[in-house]
Every structure is written in structure tokens, then in C-alpha cells.
Amino acid sequence: MNPRIKICCINSIAEAKTAVGFGASAIGLVARMPSGPGPISDSLINKIAITVPPPIATFLLTSETSVDMIINHHRRTNTNAIQIVDSLKTGTYKQLKDALPFIKIVQVIHVRDEKSVEEAIGISGLVDAILLDSGNPDLKIKVLGGTGRVHNWKLSRQIRDNSECPIFLAGGLKPENVRQAIEEVQPFAIDVCSGVRTNGNLDNYKLEKFFFEAYRV
Questions:
Q1: Cβ proximity of 19 and 191 under 8 Å
Q2: Strand (E) positions, 24-110?
């Protein structure tokens, strides 16, 4: 089965329409981050999200690490999914899901070593999906996504094979490597930002090539 495709770093209603028009199953809307590309205001996230037709998923990318702050952030944006890009520090996933029962919760794991594998497998029964990315939350200025770097797909495959929930694969994906990534990891979905952009803007040619390669048999 072909993986779903999520187009991230959407920054306007026009970009959202373009992504959906090419066949994206989900779009990513990046809120304030300590670093990385694509952050937009919460009010713009809300304006974009309400224009996206069902059943397309709208992901709020939040760097908040407490349940209360994540809930408050979501109430300002009203997306139908929340992508937590850092580790949850205060509160539990159950508290988050109890407060937002109709919102999908996706936890990002930055794949660096075997500890990342253990962490991902350990929380896979608590969230709706895990997104595997190539950031580093331990740096002085945290890198929580949008790196354009590929991580070790062998580790990602270990997570995929042992996870209790669906896996999204991100990190340095582009038309030239997306088919290999799909074959090696076999994720539920793939996530792309810079790989389908030119000078920060969605590139129709790259989008067309990315979708073609992702769905090529």
C-alpha cells in the first residue's frame, strides 16, 4: 500500500490548496520554534486550517512541552491533529487525549541512536502516531525539525517493525530519495518540507516529481 504524504511548512491558504491539489493527505502548520524554517502565527494557522476540506489532516506543530500549554496552543489554532516536536515534560498523553478526544496526537522522535528506538517503541501505545525526524533537542538552541537531513533509516525500520501505532517518516526526503526511503522503512506516511520547495516556496515541478516517485511501483 502506498504511504500517505504530508506536506509540511505550509504558510498560506494558497500553499494549502496546492498541497491538497497534488494529493497530500495532510499538511503541517509550523508554529513558533526555537529554530528552523516555516513558522507562522497562530492566527494564520487557524485561518489556513479552516479552509482545508475533510478528510485532509491539519497538523499543528507545537514546541510546547506541557499538556496545559499544548491544549491552550491548540485552542488558538483549531487543527485536527497536534504534532509535538519536543519531549512531553509536564502531564501525560492520557491527559492530553482526555482533554482533546477528537484530536489526533502525533509525537516526534528525533532518531539519533538506539535510545531513540527504545523511546519511540515505549510511547507508541500512548499516541495516535509517531513521526521520525532528524533534529536534535539537546543542542543549546534546539533543532526540532526542518533540517533537510536524512537520519539512519535502519533505526527507523526497527521502530516501524515494533511500533504499536502508525509511523510517519521525515527528514531530508526529496524526489531523489523518497522511493528508497519508502522501500527501506515502509512507513504509514512520509513527511516533506524543503524537498519540494525552491527558495522557500512550494515548487510544482518538485511536488509532481515527489508524488510520482513516492507512488512509483
A1: no
A2: 26-30, 57-62, 81-84, 104-110
Grouping H, G, I as helix, E, B as strand and the rest as coil, residue 5 is: strand
CATH number of the domain bearing residue 209: 3.20.20.70
pLDDT at 58 (0 to 100): 98
- Residue 1 CA to residue 106 CA, distance in Å, equals 21
Torsion of CA 84, 203, 172, 175, to 10 degrees: 130
Q: Say what the alpha-carbon torsion angle 191, 60, 120, 132 is, to the nearest 10 degrees.
A: 20
- Quote the domain boundaries for residue 49: 4-215
Q: Give pLDDT, residue 51.
A: 98
Confidence of residue 36 (pLDDT cuts 50, 70, 90): confident
Name the domain count of the chain: 1
Going by C-alpha positions, the residue among 179, 150, 205, 148 that lies closest to residue 9 is 148
pLDDT confidence band for 24 (50 / 70 / 90): very high
How far, in Å, CA of 205 to CA of 66, rounded?
Answer: 40
The three cell numbers of residue 123 are 510511547
Largest CA distance in the chain: 44
d(CA 51, CA 120): 33
- Whether residue 113 has pLDDT greater than 90: no
Closest CA to 155 of 120, 189, 126, 107: 120
